[in-house]
Fold these 4 entries.
Entry 1:
Amino acid sequence: VAVDWEPALADLPSAPARPRAPVALERDAPATIVYSSGTGGRPKGCVLTHGNYLSQLAALATLHPLEPGDAYL
């Protein structure tokens, strides 16, 4: 069943955004775990670090230079 997501979001309670202070992290600190069902067997998770994402950003920036105001997610 397909559902238009904008009306569904209107029903959610809104919470005020709280600004957070930046936190220094090491490059080898875990950033996320990506899970995949793979092609067989049990699902597996791969830990990606902040360094992984910084390296990806550096590689992508050579192809698509970033400018002030750009966002990377």
Entry 2:
Amino acid sequence: MKKPGVSIVMTTLNEERYIEETLDSLAAQKNAPKYELVISDGGSRDGTLRIAKKYADVVVHEPKRTVSAGRQTGVLASSCDLIACVNADTYYPTNWLSNLI
């Protein structure tokens, strides 16, 4: 049985250019339910994983390097009862997660 809260699943592959801004926007969520961040990486060769590990609760590797395979691996590694799949190059407003839930 999964625990209450939200698992935010992010797939990545060489996202160094934008990922920190994205992760900062997720970290700044206001009035959000409890959540975990699961990053499913397809084998990044830049600084993506170095940055991601500062924020993520769980980091997994998906060798198929496709978004769908990465999402599936991330969902399987998640531990919460709700799942939100997000992009690594998107800004999420501070009320995004509370409005989503």
Entry 3:
Amino acid sequence: VCFDEPTATQVAPLRQKYEAKHKRPLSPGVINGYDSVQIMAAGLEQVVDGNKPVDRKALNGVLTKISFNGVGARYDFAPDWHNGPRIENIPICTYRDGKRILFK
């Protein structure tokens, strides 16, 4: 994740809450975990239907084709792709002396 990306509007509030609670810097690993839980929740919302029990097959069917805008990247899963965000959906940032520079 690019922590200073102006279009990444979810980063600042998550960073503020996380760092206030845990007294350590927000990291990409934390964001990946957060996105994973949010993807699971979105999948469960699609599967739950009143009185029907949630089953693994139904949840897997939803998660296999879910699209989700996470904090760090966009996730577009498909039957042949379920390994996280596709490379073209991962923002890449480079910093030198604390300043963001053009990635080449």
Entry 4:
Amino acid sequence: MTNDVEKRWHDPAAVRAAVTFVVAVLAVAGAAFFVTVTWHSRVAGILVPGVLFAGGIGAFVKTYRVWRAEGVWPIWQAAGWILLMLSLFCLGVPVAVW
């Protein structure tokens, strides 16, 4: 059993899964941003931070599930924080549509 404060976290499959998840969420948010810029749609503008926020919450749910299974959970926690910070950064997108 590994203690949470130990630094023996090494799981390349979990890293690939988390990176794939983040890239997929960024692709959906990028598509919403493209629609926002093309159509000047405020609804699509609201989707950009919304998709990133939902992806961050989804990553935190996965963090909890991996933690309960005694897996390498900090990878998913980092993915969640990255997506939540990007959602805060993109909060100005709907306002920029006007």
